[in-house]
Design goal:
It is an enzyme of class 6 (ligase). It is found in: Cytoplasm. Its EC number is 6.1.1.2. This protein is mainly alpha-helical and about 325 residues long. It has 2 domains: about 220 residues, 3-Layer(aba) Sandwich (Rossmann fold), CATH 3.40.50; about 80 residues, Tyrosyl-Transfer RNA Synthetase (Orthogonal Bundle). Helix content is about 55%, strand content about 5%. The protein has 14 helices and 5 strands. The strands form 2 sheets. Strands 1-2-3 form a 3-stranded parallel β-sheet. The two termini are about 25 Å apart. The mean pLDDT is about 95. Bound molecules: tryptophanyl-5'AMP.
Length: about 325
């Protein structure tokens, strides 16, 4: 069976974009793939400086996966930091990765461009963790011999980099060991590939425009009211596809209801206020059961820790097998 793998970085409360772009599609693959899902906690260290918060967000991402339906008896589920083999492989793969490739990575380039625009040193505030980020992500993927990687659109370049890096390794050492070449799977439909946030841009922790998954109802309602809309009067026709409210609704309402709402918007007669009420209802209905489960899992002493410890064992065995073969292929002593 082929392997499906994906991870989420614990840099903030998990949000609707994570659920729609990654968690839901990943869980749909469990029947057809061997599934391996994890919490990319060391990736979060490139930006998170508060140890308590990092611990909290790591638990929170883990609880979210389980609340959303991940079954640890069918999926290998672990924290990246519990698998030291990944960090040894990170060095080996760094040595076959061109620096030029990393110079072109979106996140690093965006930081440089921001600095240049502000007239600062282009590398101001850029740490080596941010620069090496795509190599670590490549290792996450390659160490588990992943075939497919379900992600939102913003992560596709990273998966292509992993394929590139695997290619470089295979070119040099393919006679003795070859990495599996991974491929990204993105959900269908633009609103799922890039779910809009509160300001209409991509929902992202770095834009501070997210709708967290597990808010108390009153706060969820408040956030939904904040999503910007234009001033088209209730009676006038509206374009569903340029409305963040509708794009969000499309992902959470039953398809027949969303189709009906699309028609009413296009015909005119449905106002933004009513549309927002519909969105709040759909979100709340969808998320309320998950929220209850999430709250239980976040209690100290819940099964979260045992689940992650068992997952780490399985993940280490897998990565250890790959690491031994890689050490052998590159000529590191004691590898056999
Ligand atoms: P992260 O933590 O930023 O996001 C986790 C997943 O959620 C998806 N996503 C979205 N999808 C649709 N619309 C949105 N607005 C939206 N926002 C986030 C992301 O595309 C992602 O799939 N580098 C990764 C974590 C990572 C990883 C890996 C992923 C580390 N190693 C190995 C896959 C395989 C990241 O920062 O995702």
């Amino acid at each position: 069976t082929k392997v499906s793998l994906t991870g989420i970085k614990p840099t903030g409360e998990p949000h609707l974009g994570n659920l729609i772009g990654a968690i839901r599609p990943a869980l749909e693959l469990v029947d057809r793939f061997e599934s391996i899902y994890f919490i990319a906690d060391y990736h979060a260290l490139t930006t998170e400086r508060d140890p308590e918060l990092l611990r909290h967000y790591s638990r929170s991402v883990a609880a979210t996966w389980l609340a959303a339906g991940l079954d640890p008896s069918r999926t290998t589920f672990y924290r990246q930091s519990d698998v030291p083999e990944i960090f040894e492989l990170m060095w080996v793969l760094s040595c076959v990765t061109g620096k030029g490739l990393m110079n072109r990575a979106h996140a690093y380039k965006a930081a440089r461009d921001r600095n240049l625009e502000a007239g600062e040193d282009p590398d101001a505030g850029v740490n080596m963790g941010l620069f090496n980020y795509p190599v670590l992500m490549a290792v996450d993927i390659l160490a588990m011999e992943s075939d497919v990687v379900p992600v939102g659109k913003d992560q596709v370049q990273h998966v292509e980099y992993a394929a590139d890096i695997a290619g470089s390794f295979n070119h040099a050492y393919g006679d003795t060991y070859s990495f599996t070449i991974p491929e990204a799977i993105v959900p269908e439909g633009t609103s799922a590939q890039t779910l809009p946030g509160l300001d209409g841009r991509k929902m992202s922790k770095s834009y501070d425009n997210t709708i967290p998954l597990f808010l108390p109802e009153a706060e969820l309602k408040k956030l939904v009211r904040r999503i910007p809309t234009d001033s088209t009067p209730v009676s006038e026709p509206k374009d569903p596809d340029s409305s963040a409210v509708f794009q969000l609704l499309e992902q959470f309402a039953a398809p027949a209801d969303a189709a009906e709402t699309r028609k009413r918007l296009e015909e005119g007669g449905l106002g933004w206020g009513e549309l927002k009420n519909q969105l709040f209802e759909a979100l709340d209905e969808h998320l309320a059961p998950l929220r209850a489960r999430y709250d239980e899992l976040m209690e100290p002493g819940s099964e979260l820790d045992t689940v992650l410890a068992e997952g780490a064992e399985k993940a280490r065995q897998r990565a250890g097998r790959v690491l031994r073969r890689v050490r052998g292929a590159v000529g590191i002593a004691g590898s056999a």
